[in-house]
Structure formats: structure tokens, C-alpha cells
Backbone:
């Protein structure tokens, strides 16, 4: 199954093998990867190929991983829902509203599958990610936990957030 979600600037599509080098470029930037606990550091082409080999089309309604294609640029990041919302965006594309736009496309699709709520979160200090989540209607769940961040080679606090279908719908009105 091939899923594509589109806006005037973006296409969310299933990642493919030819995306590997763009993924490595984006995740080789310390300012990006320092906020992504589970991502290996330093990030290299074999990691991208391994990750791309594991991606499968939507197997659970409303859950999938997408490449974020910007018109005229190609892949600029990735976004997905597997148990919770996760995303990254290459640094040259920060500050343009692209992640909020991509997340809205994904959340519209996700909540149309019947889901009532969705979790997310961010490492404490990742103000950009938390700001995107807040714009979308996510609120802190009250849960905080310690995670190991590969790029930092240390533990950090993670702030969990949650979004209900109702809160998202009210925000979109």
C-alpha cells in the first residue's frame, strides 16, 4: 500500500532506499541528533539502510513512518507514529513551520483512523520540539523519565506529552 499525504509545500510518503544519503546528512548534524535518544551516533549510511529495510507500510491503522519531502528540495526530515508521534527535521529547514505542517497532515490522517489519543514527548531542553507539540495541542502528561541519549553519551530527562482527538479537533476549527 502506498500512502501519500500532501499540502501545498509538502508530501509525506513512505521512505525508500534512495533516501538513505539525505537521511544521513540530516542526522549527521549534532544539533539534530542530540535530541533523538535512540538514534546511533555518529550516524552513518549502514544505519540508514538498516532502518529503511525495517520500514513497512501501514500495518496498524493510523500508524506509519513517512519521509517529509519539501517541494523543490526532496527529503528534509521524517515523521511517524509508532505507538507515539516522533519526528526530526534537517537544521537548514528549521523555523519555516514545516514540521507543524507535516504533523498536521499526519495527525489528520491518524485521527481519521478512529484513534482517541496519541502520545509524544521530547528530551528536556528541546524547546523546538515541545513548541511544535504545543502548537498541535499536545500537553504535558505529568510523566517525566530518564532516557539515554546516544549522541550525548549520557542520560537526560524526557518530558512526555499527550494529545486527544477532541483537543486536536478544537485546535483545527
Residues:
Amino acid at each position: 500500500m502506498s500512502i501519500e499525504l500532501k499540502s501545498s509545500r509538502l508530501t509525506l510518503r513512505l521512505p525508500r532506499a534512495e533516501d538513505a544519503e539525505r537521511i544521513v546528512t540530516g542526522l549527521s548534524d549534532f544539533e539534530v541528533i542530540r535530541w533523538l535518544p535512540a538514534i546511533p551516533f555518529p550516524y552513518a549510511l549502514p544505519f540508514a539502510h538498516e532502518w529503511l529495510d525495517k520500514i513497512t507500510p501501514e500495518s496498524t491503522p493510523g500508524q506509519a513512518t513517512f519521509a517529509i519531502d519539501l517541494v523543490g528540495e526532496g527529503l528534509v526530515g521524517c515523521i511517524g507514529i509508532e505507538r507515539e508521534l516522533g519526528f526530526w527535521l534537517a537544521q537548514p529547514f528549521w523555523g519555516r513551520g514545516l514540521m507543524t505542517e507535516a504533523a498536521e497532515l499526519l495527525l489528520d490522517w491518524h485521527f481519521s483512523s478512529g484513534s482517541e489519543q496519541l502520545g509524544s514527548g521530547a528530551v528536556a531542553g528541546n524547546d523546538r520540539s515541545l513548541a511544535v507539540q504545543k502548537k498541535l495541542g499536545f500537553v504535558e502528561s505529568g510523566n517525566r523519565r530518564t532516557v539515554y541519549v546516544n549522541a550525548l553519551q549520557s542520560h537526560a530527562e524526557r518530558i512526555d506529552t499527550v494529545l486527544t482527538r477532541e483537543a486536536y479537533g478544537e485546535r483545527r476549527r
Observations:
- The helical segments are 20-27, 30-33, 45-54, 98-111, 127-136, 165-172.
- DSSP finds six helices and eight strands in the chain.
- Strands lie at 4-6, 10-13, 65-70, 74-82, 84-89, 117-123, 139-149, 154-164.
